[in-house]
Write a structure and sequence with these properties.
The structure holds two protein chains of two kinds. Chain A starts with a strand and ends with a helix. Chain A has six helices and ten strands. Chain A is elongated and about 90 Å long. The C terminus of chain B is likely disordered. The two termini of chain B are 44 Å apart. Chain B is 70% helix and 0% strand. By secondary structure, chain B is mostly helical. Chain B contains 13 helices and no strands. Chains A and B meet through β2, α2, β6 and α6 of A and α1, α2, α4, α6 and α8 of B.
């Protein structure tokens, strides 16, 4: 069975936030404030329980030919962030209720009727995507529009994107297209264009890939995300050591030092 | 109307800028970064210095759960071994009561921390060996059943005399509380160690031993405060736990990764150090002194060591959870940006 993926090309994004709005509309996600952030045109900040798509606004110093602005104006990089739908997903591994599952489309989905809000997925996501809604009690994140995909539809954000910055399609196909796009962009002089899909890390690749210019860290994307299960062996070894020490220590103490 | 709206927004923006310049900080929902001028998005400052990771959603119950579970699990193991080696009956009984109390308090704390407490039983629809939370819940279930059964059967035997079913229940309960107690008293170190929070996962190989020693310190301390301050085996166990806590303190202080900053600086740094000193060097010294002195003075020193260890154990759990919150806000570590510590951390 072929799986699906997002490819978000920041070089095509115009920062219109149609993806954010379409996502909220379709998924009926709550309004989360209309405050100024006071530090950039991005008044949303990050993905969270009430924001499943989030357009990042990265302000560059004035650079002719970048962003299409006049030379004296600062230029912009926009990139629509979303749950990465990791191959080795920290949240899915951590979930103790089995609420978080891998769907037939390859996405990572929180079943809202199962989640009991333990919050362990929140601390297990290396991308800081999952968040608990304290009013509701449960954890929420992008569903990869599981309901729409079931019905053969394109996810709401990709459908709404006016510049096809958000592409949706079959995983392997999209990955090839991503590599071609990066080659083409570099050929056109955008030497800093690169694919971000965490394929070389313990996350093992993502179903939400990004084409970015420059350092991913400007977009709050870690260079080396790690799935927390890599720490299990070390931790359980230490746990076994602690258990062994207590068992042996108590036996020794009570046998060697009986009450007089 | 629309014009008024625009004016209001412009005024709000001006207010925010003034507030940022004046106080270096802006209060209010949606206004997160501290310090003015605000950082830009760059490979050196991340995305406007906004946190990459989410803070734990856990509430005050969780550090208490770590404390109660650690003490109860260790008490069950100590009690069972004391019983098998034919130690003082009162010690066995008191240890069982600590375990039983923990077996009631722990699930109550765990359930009340859930966003949807009424769905606690959903935890029992699967067993996932790769999820420490899942392993922990099943361990808690086995432990609570065993420890409360042993305490109940022990009570029935003392009250109504021995009978076969009661003795079977008592022995089975004690065996179960020992078997499940062995992972239960330290698994919380695995629970927070195997996460994406840098300060926790950078200590994944130390936290279970650290939390285990902390739990043993608390269990031994509570037993001594219940009147077992002359027991030599408990003294030895308390000494051993204090020595491991000293070692873990040295492990924290001697390593230099930036991810460990919340353990050394700010409020959480002070809490971690206070907790470490109270469970490590202080009880170690007091216990050593108590061995060199006699009678009432010796017992007083041991009671002081116990109090210090119990308080230190509780403080340690609170400090580690708080350190996780601070660590999650520090975008530098998960982004792999090395620069001097931010002074506002903590």
């Amino acid at each position: 069975m072929t799986t699906t993926a997002f490819l978000t090309d920041s070089t095509l994004c115009i920062g219109c936030k149609a993806c954010e709005v379409a996502c909220k509309e379709w998924n009926n996600v709550a309004e989360d404030g209309l405050d100024w952030s006071g530090f950039s045109y991005d008044n949303t900040g990050a993905v969270g329980h009430s924001t499943w798509r989030h357009v990042k606004f990265v302000e560059h110093s004035p650079e002719p030919g970048f962003g299409g602005n006049a030379p004296e104006l600062s230029s912009w990089g926009f990139s629509s962030d979303v749950c990465k739908h990791c191959e080795n997903a920290g949240c899915l591994e951590a979930c103790p209720t089995g609420s978080i599952v891998r769907t037939e489309f390859g996405g990572v989905y929180i079943q809202p009727d199962i989640c009991n809000g333990c919050g362990y997925c929140v601390v297990s996501c290396p991308f800081g995507v999952v968040e608990r809604n304290d009013d509701d009690g449960r954890a929420f994140k992008c569903t990869f529009c599981y309901d729409r995909q079931k019905a053969g539809l394109v996810p709401a954000c990709a459908k709404a994107c006016p510049t096809e910055s958000i592409k949706f399609g079959e995983f392997e196909d999209l990955k090839l297209r991503a590599k071609e796009s990066v080659r083409e962009l570099q050929g056109r002089g955008m030497r800093d264009a690169a694919l971000y899909d965490a394929a070389e890390t313990s996350v093992g690749g993502t179903h939400a890939m990004f084409i970015l210019r420059g350092d991913p860290r400007s977009y709050n994307l870690p260079l080396k995300p790690e799935v927390p299960t890599i720490y299990l062996k070390k931790a359980w070894t230490s746990s076994a050591l602690a258990a062994g020490l207590l068992l042996a220590g108590s036996l020794l103490a009570f046998l060697a030092l009986p009450e007089k | 109307m629309e014009e008024n709206d625009n004016i209001a927004r412009e005024q709000r923006l001006t207010e925010l800028r003034r507030e940022a310049e004046r106080g270096g900080e802006v209060k209010g929902r949606g206004v997160r970064p501290r310090g003015a001028p605000f950082p830009m998005a760059s490979p050196e400052t991340g995305y406007y210095g906004l946190p990459l990771l989410k803070q734990p959603s856990w509430t005050w119950e969780v550090p208490l759960y770590l404390f109660a579970g650690g003490a109860a699990g260790a008490a069950a193991v100590v009690g069972a071994i004391a019983d098998y080696t034919g130690a003082d009956r009162k010690l066995v009984r008191d240890a069982r009561w600590i375990a039983a109390a923990g077996s009631v308090i722990s699930p109550a704390l765990l359930i009340s921390d859930l966003g949807r407490p009424e769905r606690f039983l959903n935890m029992l629809r699967v067993f996932k060996p790769r999820s420490p939370m899942s392993v922990g819940v099943w361990t808690l279930l086995g432990f609570s059943t065993g420890a409360s059964a042993a305490a109940f059967a022990g009570f029935m035997r003392e009250r109504y005399g021995p009978s076969l079913p009661i003795r079977v229940l008592e022995n089975a309960g004690q065996a179960a509380s020992l078997a499940f107690g062995l992972p239960f008293f330290n698994y919380t170190g695995v629970l927070i160690g195997a996460t994406a929070i840098p300060v926790w996962n950078e200590n994944a190989g130390d936290l279970p031993l650290h939390f285990g020693a902390s739990g043993v310190s608390a269990a031994v301390g509570i037993l001594e405060l219940m009147g077992h301050e002359k027991n030599r085996a408990l003294q030895a166990l308390g000494m051993g736990a204090a020595m491991i806590e000293c070692w873990e303190g040295w492990r924290i202080e001697s390593r230099r990764q930036p991810g460990l900053d919340p353990l050394k600086h700010g409020t959480t740094g002070s809490l971690i150090r206070a907790g470490g000193i109270l469970t490590g060097p202080v009880p170690f010294a007091l216990r050593a002194l108590s061995m060199a002195t006699r009678k009432e003075r010796s017992r007083r020193l041991r009671r002081m060591a116990s109090l210090s260890a119990v308080a230190g154990s509780l403080l340690t759990r609170i400090a580690w959870i708080q350190a996780g919150h601070i660590s999650a806000q520090d975008w530098r570590v998960p982004l792999g940006i090395s620069e001097p510590s931010r002074p506002d951390i903590g």
